[in-house]
Amino acid sequence: MASNDQIAECFAIYDKDNDGKVIIDELGPCLRSLGKSPTNADLEAIKADLGNPRDFDIPTIKSILAKKSVRAPADQQKEMLDAFKALDKEGHGSIQEAELRQILTTLGDYLTTAEVEEVMKEVNVNTDGGIDYSKFVEMLVNGYALSGF
Fold it and tell me: What are phi and psi of 142, to 5 degrees?
């Protein structure tokens, strides 16, 4: 879990007017900045549990982080690998770049085209247009999770 200093520093970044509150729309980015990986459904459930407030404060974010239900990317690693393996009918261990782009922009908690472009800047594509999905998952799990500021 993030330290109190990390939480305070992150919160300060999102508390644009320094009033001790952050608008609820920033909950997802704030949690992700602290190394968690909530889905849109997770965020909606958290907001509902909080009574659908318009904003949140540091004690609220600390209580959310203390709950085991907000998973980190590493907690999802096996699920992500299993999903890619299910798509990999020939067992090559790779996925075509175009197919990955389509998946990222259309399935589940999909990304915007701009978000996909940012992710793809970090991906190694082989000469056949394939991406090693185990390395891709490793990048998602370790490359973007913040262990400290």
Answer: -105, -30
Q: Which CATH number among 3.40.50.10240, 1.20.1250.20, 3.90.25.10, 1.10.238.10 corresponds to the domain 75-142?
A: 1.10.238.10
Count the Cβ atoms, other than its own, within 10 Å of residue 39: 13
pLDDT at 40: 83
And the tokens for 124?
A: 């190694």
Exposure b/e, 74-111, CB count within 10 A at least 16 = b? eebbeebbebbeeeeeeeeebbebeebbebbeeeeeeb
Residue range 4-66, CATH number: 1.10.238.10
What is the Cβ-side half-sphere exposure of residue 128, based on CA atoms within 13 angstroms? 7
Q: Which whole number is the average pLDDT over 36-62?
A: 91
Q: Output the pTM of the full model.
A: 0.59
**Percent of the chain whose predicted confidence (pLDDT) is above 70:** 94
